Amino acid sequence: MKPADALVEENRRLAELLAAADPQTPVPTCPGWALRQLLTHVGRGDRWAATIVRERAQERVDIRTVPDGKPPADDPVGWLTAGPRLLLEAVEATGPDVAVWTFTGPRPAAWWIRRRLHEAAVHRADAAAALGVPYEIEPGLAADGVSEWLDILATRPVPADGPALPDGATLHLHATDDGLGAEGEWLVRSADGRVAWEHGHGKGAAAVRGRAADLLRAVLRRIPADDPALQVLGDPAVWRTFLSRTPF
């Protein structure tokens, strides 16, 4: 599925969950939020990205200035599902290859489609956790979410409390889903204190195995480092330190 189609589908699946839920339901994976805040966050974020692309912004746009940034009381879910269309229309009008501002530096406008796709996918996991329902996601999409997150981490400076991984240490992430091939394995290292990664199989100071969906939730700290869905081999402190020094 193309990223644009996947964005629409993930947003639809999130909206389906929220439409049947009490908006005041607390979201344990987003402390201080209820489902109403989660819905607003995703819908406003899509409009923010659309504004950046439409205006060909070269500097950060204040999200508080984004038009239509709050859901209407009479149809908040309809407002949420309109967000992807606004972004896709903006990318088409501007041109997918035109460089615009992102929080990782200038990127092609189409970068925002993938970013908002994975934002919707992870916040659907938050909604599922809040409602106590299973979280299912296509393994290839979850694996791409892990890769996208590692791409973001690779643009960051060395954390103030030290590198995410010690020099010479490798963290091996391995998705156990069938059919992913190389796209389901990641070797993560420290390069001058910053995160560097590549797809591949190799021995590391720590290895973490699990479904791609569970690895995605783990690297984004939606489940704990020692969650039963994960198999941690080698030095668990390497894995825990990596998570503690790579917040969103």
Protein architecture, described:
It is a single chain. With 248 residues, the protein is α+β, with helices and mostly antiparallel strands. It has 2 domains: 3-131, Four Helix Bundle (Hemerythrin (Met), subunit A) (Up-down Bundle); 158-244, Nonspecific Lipid-transfer Protein, Chain A (2-Layer Sandwich). The chain is 44% helix and 12% strand. The chain has helices spanning 3-19, 35-54, 76-94, 111-131, 139-154, 212-219, 236-244; strands at 99-100, 107-108, 171-175, 185-191, 194-199, 206-210, 231-234. The strands form 2 sheets. Strands 5-4-3-6-7 form a 5-stranded mixed sheet. The longest helix is centred in the middle third of the chain and has 21 residues, at 111-131. The chain is globular and about 50 Å long. 40% of the residues are buried. The model has no long low-confidence stretch (mean pLDDT 97).
Describe the protein's topology:
Elements: H1 3-19, H2 35-54, H3 76-94, E1 99-100, E2 107-108, H4 111-131, H5 139-154, E3 171-175, E4 185-191, E5 194-199, E6 206-210, H6 212-219, E7 231-234, H7 236-244
Parallel strand pairs: 3-6
Antiparallel strand pairs: 1-2, 3-4, 4-5, 6-7
Helix pairs in contact: 1-3, 1-4, 2-3, 2-4, 4-5, 5-6
Summarize the structure.
With 248 residues, the chain is of the alpha+beta class. Helix content is 44%, strand content 12%. A hairpin with a 2-residue loop joins strand 4 and strand 5.
